[in-house]
Amino acid sequence: MDKLDPNNRIGFSSVVAKVNEIVAFLNRRNGCFKPPTPQEVEAYAKEYAGKHSGIDGDISGADFCDFYESKGWMIGKSKMKCWQAAVRKCCRDGWCGPQAAQKKTPLFPISGRKCSQCPLPAVYKDSGGAYDFYYCSDHMPEEVKAKYE
Asked: Is residue 90 within 8 Å of 38, Cβ to Cβ?
């Protein structure tokens, strides 16, 4: 490792970054897990996206941390070992970015059912009253349309 002398042009911040990288590696290796801050998640996602073309690093660190905090930093039945791996997967799959909040649920035809108002296949079932009503995408209520494509 390079010595810290003024002629070497190694800055204090690069040394701190390298030390933090080594500490993170040792913590992962020894099984110690420290949950990240939202800022760390966003910074790592941008760094990862910068190194890999076609990957969107614009994820919400707060959403990521809230999601895993609510699950006790567990993945299935196992304790999370490396949050960086979870961020990389999130970047690849795009499930915790701003675009994920804007995704709408797709509509699929309900097998064997027609719209109560026309002969089109039904995609929505309203069970609010004494009878079930089936609607196509043209006739379903406006507040329901807002949730779907």
From this structure: no
